[in-house]
Fold each of these.
Amino acid sequence: MSDPETLPAGVHPEVELLPWYATGTLAEPDRQRIARHLESCRDCSGELQELVDMQRNLQALYRQEAEPSTQLARSVMARVAADAAGGQGRPGETTWVAGLDRWFRSLFMPQWVPTLAAVLLMVQAGLLVWVVLPPPERGEIGTRSLGMQTAKIAVVFQSSATEEQIRSLLQRLQARVVDGPTGDGVFTITVNTGDPSAQAALALLHERRDLIRSAELVRP
Amino acid sequence: VLRTQLAKLTRRAMAELTREHQEILRLVFYEEQPYEEISTLLGIPANTVKTRVYYAKQRLKEQLARLGEKEPIR
C-alpha cells in the first residue's frame, strides 16, 4: 500500500522537513524557517523530539547490523540486474575499463581449460588401462619389450640330476627356467623357437632320460 | 538493560514496516542523506520523499506502541 502524497489535514507543512532539521542536513534557508516555526509551535517541537529519539534508536540499531549503505546496495543490485539481463551494460557504457575488465576475467576463465582437462583425463585413463592390463606373453612381440619368439616347456627333472648337469643342458638348449618348481616338481622353461626349434628342444629333452623325467610343450 | 530492550523492540518494529519505509528511514536517520539526494537515489519526487518519511515514522511509532503494549519495557 503506497502512502498518500500529502500530509494529513491539520499537520503543519513544516513537519515534512523536521527529519532533516533533526539530522542537521537541511539547507540554511529551510533550517531558519523551521527554527522560527519551532519557537512558536509546541506540536512540531514535540514531533521534533520524537524524531531525535527515533534517530538515536535507529542509529544504535543500524550500527549493530552494519549493513552496506543503501546507495552501495542499490548500485550493486542495479549492476547485477544489468548483467543478468544479458548485457554488459548499455552500449554507450562500453569503455576501455570494461574491456580491460573482460580481458582480466578471461584470464581466469580461459576457453581452452575444459578441452585441456578432457585431454588430460583421456591420457590418464589410457595410462591406467595400460598399467592394469597384463603384459603380452613373452613369446609375443609387444610394445613394451622386444621379446624374442619363445616357447614354454614344462619339465620334471630326475631327482638324481645334479644342478650342474641341468645347467649344462639348459645352456645347450639356450633355455632358461621361468617358473617352478610347482608342488609336483614341475619347472617351466622357455626356449627360443628359432634355432633349435621348440620341437627339436623337446626331442633333445626326451633323449636325456637320465636327467629329464618328463617334458611337454605348454600350449598358450 | 532498558536500551537493549528498546533496541530489540525497535528491530522488531522495523521488521514490520514495508521495504520502502525501512529504506527511507535508514537513508534519513542513519545515512543522514539530504532529501534532494534521496530523491535522486530513489528516483522519486522530493515531495514524495518528505511524505514517505512522515508516514514511515508514523508506522514505526505505531508498531513500537503495539509491541510496547504486548511487552512493556521495564
Amino acid sequence: MPISTQTDFESIVRETQSHLRAYIAGLGVTGHDVDDVAQDVYIELYRNFERIPANISVERWLKGIARNLCMNFFRRTSRRGRLHRQALAEMLSRADQAESLTDLPGDVEAALAGCLKKLGAESRRLVLLRYEQELPSADIAARLDSTAEAIRVALHRIRAKLRQCINSHLAEQAPA
Amino acid sequence: MSQIERLLERFIDDADGLSEAELAELAAALKANPALVEGLRDQLLIDELLRQKLSLDRADFLAQVRQRVSDHERGECELDARTAELSLLAMRELEAAPEGRRRRPALVLWASLASLLLAVAAAALAGYLGSRGPVARIAQADSSAVVVRGESRLPAGEGFELKPGDVVESQGGEVAIGYDDGTTVQLSGDSTLAFEEAAGKQLLLSSGELVADIAAQPAGRPMIFRTPAAEALVVGTRLRLRASLAETELEVLEGAVELRRRDGDQSQMVNARQLAVLTTGHLTFHSTEWPLDRRGLVILAPAGVGEGLVRSSKTGRLAPFRLKPRGEASLEGARAMRLAGGAVVAERAGRDLLSLLEPANGFSLEVIFRADGPAGTLLTYSPEASPANFELVHDGDWLVWRSRAPTGAIEYRLAQVAARETSHLVVTAGSDGFRAFLNGRLVFEDGANPLADLPWAAGALLFGNAPGNDRPFRGEILGAAIYDRSLPHEDALLSSRRLPVKP
C-alpha cells in the first residue's frame, strides 16, 4: 500500500491497527504496553505522513518504526531482565521475516471469529475466562479445580489450534 | 513437559513473572532452536488477537489514538504560541534598549570579520576531525535529530558514525547512541550532547536530559559526563543526567558516581537511588526511594524516568506503567511532575485502580507537592463524562478533598498550606474513620468512614488539571502514592520525614 494512495490517516489506523498491535505483542511487549507503543507508532506516522518514501508500503514503514520503538521500550523500562527481553525481541523480530500472521493477506480477525466458533465448549470456556474476564491461570485453575500449569498447557494447545484454523481459513479464501 | 516448554508457557502467560535467570535460560534455548522462536511468536500473535477481540478495555484503541493525536496537536500549538511570545518579547526589548547599547556599524563589521575567521577555523578543524575514526554510533533516532559536524547539520540516521567534535541535537525526539563496549546513551527532549576532543569517553551535555547505561570502564579511565556546572565520573553504572545553565541533576540508578563541581575541587559520591541536584552554590541530595514502607502500595508516581508503578491485580507485584504529560505538564525525570496548566495522565493505572481498591478495607493517598500559586486541582480520579470519584484541590490557602460517597458527594476542607513550600499530605480512610495528616501532623478527623462501599467508576487518574477545568494547578508533585490500607499516624509521620533526606 504505497503512501501516495493513502490520503486518510484515520483509515490507515483503522486498517492496520490490529496487525500492528499483534506485531508489537509478537516482539514480547505485554498487556497495555502494546497499545501504548502502538499509539506512539501512529503519532510518528501522523508527524511524518508526508515524508514516507513512495516505494515503501505503509505497513512496512509502521513495522519498522514499531520495531525501533519496541527496542526503545525495552531499553527504557528498568524492569527485570531488560537485556534478555531485548535479546528475545531481536530473535522474535527476525522470526517475523519468515511468514507471519501479520503479513498474511485476508481478514485475520474474521478468520479468528470463525475459528473460535469451532472450539469445543470446554476450550471456549477457558478462552473466555482468560481473555474476556482476564483471569490469571492460577485463578482459572482454582475455579476449574485444576493447576495453573495444566491451564497454561491447555491454553497453549488452544492457541496452536486456532493458528492452524486461521491458516486454513485464509488459504481457502485466497484466490487460486 | 520439558523445562523450556514450561518457561515458554509461563512467558506467554505473564512475561514479567519470569526471573532474570529464567529469562536468560529461555533466551539461550531460543537462540539454539529457531523453530521455538517461530512457535513462540505464533503463540504471542494469537494471544494478542484474542485479547483484542475479547478484552473490553482493549476495544477503544481508535479513540485512544485520536486522543493522542489531539494532545500532540495541542502541544505543537502551545509551543508555537510560546515561541511567538518570546520573539515578541525579544523584539520589544531590542526596541526599548537605550542608544548606547545598540550595536554600532563598526562593531558589527569587526564582529562579522571575527565570525568569518572563526567559521574558517571551525571548518578546518571539522575537516581534520572528519578524518578521525568513529567513537560511537547512532543506534536509533527520531527523524528530528541531527548531528552537527563543523558547519554541516546531518540527519542522525541509524548507524551514523559519531566522531570527536560531533554534537548530537535531539530536537524534541529521542536518540540512542551505542559504543562498541555496550555502553548506551539515550537523549530525549531538546538535548545537546557534544563528543569532546579527548581520549576515552568524554561527553558534554550542555542542555537537556540523558539516560546512560555504562559498561565497566578500564581502570583509571572513567567515562566523564560534563554539564555547564559539574562533571560526573563513572566507571560502570546506570544514571540519568539533566543539565541547564542553572542546574545539574544527577540520578544514579545503579552503582555509584563521583560528582564534581566544575568551579571547585570538591567532589562527592552519589549512590544508587540517590538524586543530586546542583544549583548555583548548592548541592542537595534526595532519596529516590520513596515511600520506604510499601505495604499496601497500589500506585506510585513518579517511580522512574517517565514511569510509575501499579500493582498488578493478577500477580500482586508492582509493575511499571507510563506517565503521559498532556498540555503544559512535564516529567522531571524520576524527581517530580511539573504542572503549568496541563496534567500528567496515568491511564493504565487509572483503569486498574478501582479493581485494586474495591476488595480492600482501607484507602490512603499520600502526596508531596509544592504549589506556585493559590489554586488548582492537584489530583483527580475521574471516569469519563461522570463526576470525579475523588479529587484533591488547592483552593485559596486550603487543601480540599472532594469525593463520591454512598451518602452523596462530600467535601472536606483539610488544612491550610502555604504556596512555594513543600508539603506532605496523607488522606486516609478505614474502619477507624477519615483523617488527614499534613507534614506528619493530624489536621482533620471524622469518625465515620465516607469511603466504605465505594460508589466509584473506573476512569483515568490525572495528576494536575482535568479537561475543562479553568483553575489549573501550577507547581510540582514530587511524589504521589495510593495504598489499599489505612495509614496510621506514625506511618504518615515517618513518611513525611523522608524527602529530602539530606540537605
